[in-house]
């Protein structure tokens, strides 16, 4: 029964308009011929051209991608371990504290995490001589630290809603616990792990605050570059860059959504065939 | 009883039906869940809608509750046409299959929830809640929350909550489904007692034949959205009107045949399965040559070692399967034609295994009385 | 290799069996080593790279600014620490004001997110099938694009010369008397802008936990309430709202806590004379190079947020437990 459908759906429409009008405006003005980013001067794709030939931007983008790939992968490995620990190995020593440690970075303001990470690296440099120069490595370590908590949350949630009797059946048939993990559990939760990786990748690619604290000379990621440019004001080449990112990400998300839809439809079709065969 | 139930369930006679379901049809897109159903229910009845899954009984119940609006037809309760009324304006309350207890409210608050909309004083409400909890014997647990209760206790809270407003009609959706066997038996009688005490008209939806037969004053057997037969438990069991009802309730032996002749209320029917002719009593037999189905309940078939001397319908067979249930024994006997007949025999005398009527591979005689046979055409 | 271990212990994955019983180190590794590695790896990492840094920051807040590089120094005499930074927090009105502004802005943003996000989440639960996934995708999509760029998009709209500003100004000018007409609406560099952009950025963080909670609610409870006489708005008040409280709290904290420490939004669209605490920390750190002071400000913020963070952890684990137990 749909109660108050009109009110709810006008809220929904207003909300989506709220979400997308700024983005659409930005996309629109990226094709602006004039330099003034807020007054329309005619259609042009010159800014895209400028963008793609700007060496600084390309370099920053490549660096961001490298960091994102590396940190996402390690974050997924560590985060999956953490998720498994919390969901399956329930009461080990210090598990409540560990659970708190995993939740904290999710909500903590980035500025606090950023400062503390930087302090750590500075003190480490003083005590043990490493890291000598902050940059790629330190950024990656910081990204891994907070990304893994997102992965852990996703994995933990997926594991707790999983049917335990499947694992028990595997053990009943002779598999040792670690084999159960390898052969049964991990394959089943693989989609969750994959989405965790994607999330970690996106977060790393997008991060500004923590990166700005843990970076060093020569290691300028794309968000840091944009951050410094944006402080100077609105320009069409940033519009163009934003549009590119949004379109790429949008296509990616739409593609993922479409693939999931296809998988689900196929599953339903298979189920219907089974039911029909039974009757 | 003063009223006669006709084939499609309409009551005739002086008493106006308390609940009238008038030609109700409910379609979901192209699918017809309830197809032109008309049922009259008397005040104070415990009426059951019985059928397998997908037969439309739950949809019909939801139409009565107000959660579905019929595509066609009307629902009239105590003279009031409620068809277009939303659930919160009907004098109907429902006990849900999953109990649907509010998890964030105590037992007391759950039971008293509906009373907030009644014009009562606070004391009046508290008294009513207490009275209800006494009725279902849950008085000491009034402060508990649903997750602190057992399944049986939750069910009683759901019942008390549905009765609290003293509705004109109480709907119960598979009330005994979630209970184990012992609890089910006990609860069956509790429900009947409560209905007796309160005098409220109950409509129960169930797929369990035993439950329907024990609880109900009358049953409507439904299949694919249509009502197949309405009657008392005895009528449904002993006098099924069609093959579906005959085969749905309990177990039954079915034999295809053709009418040979009929005289003096006794009809002779040729049954190839039995290898001969049987005599059945039927008030209005079809003409000779008509294709019919003869149905006999297993407990009406007598199984003997030797040919019974004065049996009208008797035939031979060999015992293929034997099931011993303590109080009775179930025999599956294979006839010469290859057809399997099920016969049920009460173990009236205390006897050891070697003294039984028959055992595997034994040759036996099966016989039944003409009045025990049901003659069905459709 | 198997030894005299019981089967239960060997297959125990819950860790409930007591340790001890005389394992040798090699025994330990062979039996449960893999399990301990899985627990220990992320644990050690977080202790080293998350917890340890906090302790260092707390220590740093007790140092003083110096001309050295790195620009801090501890006192030479006992107790080696200087509480001057902490004292400045309370004495200098700039800091107190910044904390209050932060809590104020974050609070209003949270409330607005709730007001707009709750009906949106509720609406999405009412939609069936493919459309529901499409709507969820539309809610998540902005989240996957760059946070920075979305803030930037608003800068484009809020500037005095943007089409949006001009449109709104014209709209307002129609409603107000002629002598109060505006040339443009001063949106940039105000607290209003900060709250607006925060709502914009954090709305998905409110919608998703709310949706997860609402989606898990039992629909028959609503039917039962209606059956017992409640009209739809009463059903919402008595059943839906109380049962969605965990989602409201989780979503609210998920917005409030990070919002109170926001850096980017107040730096880009905020009022420089009334900054939020995140901006203060960032400025203190990079511009003023006063690391001990920045640390002290950060530590104070951390202590303020500890209780909300613990609350969030409690509600989040309660929500996790809810998804395990079948009701």
Short description:
The complex is a heterotrimer of chains A (279), B (378) and C (327). By secondary structure, chain B is of the alpha+beta class. Chain B has helices at residues 57-65, 107-112, 122-135, 151-163, 181-198, 209-215, 233-238, 243-248, and strands at residues 4-5, 11-12, 19-28, 31-41, 46-50, 72-77, 80-81, 92-95, 169-173, 201-206, 218-223, 226-231, 253-263, 266-271, 276-281, 291-296, 302-304, 313-324, 328-335, 340-346, 363-368, 374-376.
Q: How does the SSE layout of this entry go?
A:
The complex is a heterotrimer of chains A (279), B (378) and C (327).
Chain A: H1 5-29, H2 46-52, H3 55-88, H4 95-107, H5 110-128, H6 136-160, H7 164-172, H8 177-188, H9 190-206, H10 209-214, H11 222-230, H12 236-278
Chain B: E1 4-5, E2 11-12, E3 19-28, E4 31-41, E5 46-50, H1 57-65, E6 72-77, E7 80-81, E8 92-95, H2 107-112, H3 122-135, H4 151-163, E9 169-173, H5 181-198, E10 201-206, H6 209-215, E11 218-223, E12 226-231, H7 233-238, H8 243-248, E13 253-263, E14 266-271, E15 276-281, E16 291-296, E17 302-304, E18 313-324, E19 328-335, E20 340-346, E21 363-368, E22 374-376
Parallel strand pairs in B: 5-10, 5-11, 8-9, 9-10
Antiparallel strand pairs in B: 1-2, 3-4, 3-6, 6-7, 11-12, 13-14, 13-16, 14-15, 16-22, 17-21, 18-19, 18-21, 19-20
Helix pairs in contact in B: 3-4
Chain C: H1 7-11, H2 25-60, E1 64-65, E2 72-73, H3 84-91, H4 93-126, H5 129-144, H6 147-158, H7 163-175, H8 191-215, H9 219-227, H10 232-243, H11 245-260, H12 264-269, H13 277-286, H14 291-324
Antiparallel strand pairs in C: 1-2
Helix pairs in contact in C: 2-14, 3-4, 4-8, 4-11, 5-8, 6-8, 8-11, 9-10, 11-14, 13-14
Jot down its keywords.
heterotrimer; A: 279 residues; mainly alpha; MetI-like fold; 0% strand; C: 327 residues; two-stranded antiparallel ribbon; 72% helix; disordered C terminus
